[in-house]
Amino acid sequence: MTQFSALGLNDHLLKTLQAQDFTTPTPIQTEAIPHVMAGRDLMGLAQTGTGKTAAFGLPLIHRLMAIGKAPAPATARALILAPTRELVAQIADTLAGFTRHTHIKVVTVVGGASLNKQAERLARGADILVATPGRLIDLLDRQAVTLAQTTYLVLDEADHMLDMGFIHALKKIARHLTAKRQTLLFSATMPKQIEELAGTYLTNPVRVQVAPPGKVADKVTQAVHYTSQGDKASLLRDYLGQHPDEMALVFGRTKHGAEKLMKLLVSWGFAAGSIHGNKSQGHRERTLAAFRAGELKVLVATDVAARGIDIPGVRHVYNYDLPNVPENYVHRIGRTARAGADGRAVSFCAPAEMDELRAIEKQLKQPIEVIGGTPHMGEAPAPRQPQRGRGGPKPAQKAFGAPKPGAKPAQRGGRPGQGRPQRQARSA
User: Can you give the pLDDT at residue 68?
Assistant: First the structure.
């Protein structure tokens, strides 16, 4: 079995990894690090949660440590682009652990924070700049930073950046970069646009793939519960009431809907918070910190959080609304079963969402097990019956604990079972 010591990293990094109990690299790290150390452009395909940050971060830090002097003012030696603020923060936190007791300076720039303060930090120069594309362009337009000395470029979660419409921003940033650079592109899926992006940004890249694109982590148990749109909120309440002390992540489709759902859950006695594009950066960071600390048990989010939340304690993911982009389903449910733990993902499917469900199952290349409700007439085949016997899975009702028809919902402070939940549900 490969060890970090066999990958050519310097002694300081090896001691840092050992102090943090990192001994055996993940498959993407084993495959990618030697190529990055050799200076090759690389296209890495791996699902979320496989250790991609270390795969590009460790060899990058190794090479920057060899320079031995501080970067020039308002410059960045390495640029890492990520689609969301949360992912930028996660990458920076990971890199901070690896650069401890070194001269390597990691700087982050994201929207929703003070532009002037970010410009002040960049004025002192950065070894590694981790940024969202939009905010980086703001700083480039103000001439607060130059990329003329940037010789390393990392595009992380490239497919999500394209989904979010950052292709024009990437082209604009590319005009500021020198052609003499090493470029690394990491993506969980490989649509045609990513192939085109790689052809534009990478030179004779080596391709590393450790899992089929769109593959779900092995320890995530998936299920779908058919319901009407108006009954989703009360159904979610019933599910959450079954595990009041475990952390759950709930995904909605819109910012407005996520906020209303969070407020409804709070009114029912759940310790819930929300993050989405209408929240300030400070609020999003405080909410994530409270969720990570266990002060909040339920986090309602839009797809802005599908990539960038790395919290091992998340046991349950609920797709309150099915995603429009089937690849996002994989990233959503990848927020559970982190660090080798088990997790479960339940999707609520309303009649209008049958096309989304079909697209997701096509992406997965397998049907999702039905644990509640009945497939909407004329829209889908009958649910599969759970198999019994040696080696087969347990009945879905026991495996998932789907609420029984007519079951009394769990009480979570106040009297959540009172009132008219049907009307409340529609408001969510």
Answer: 83
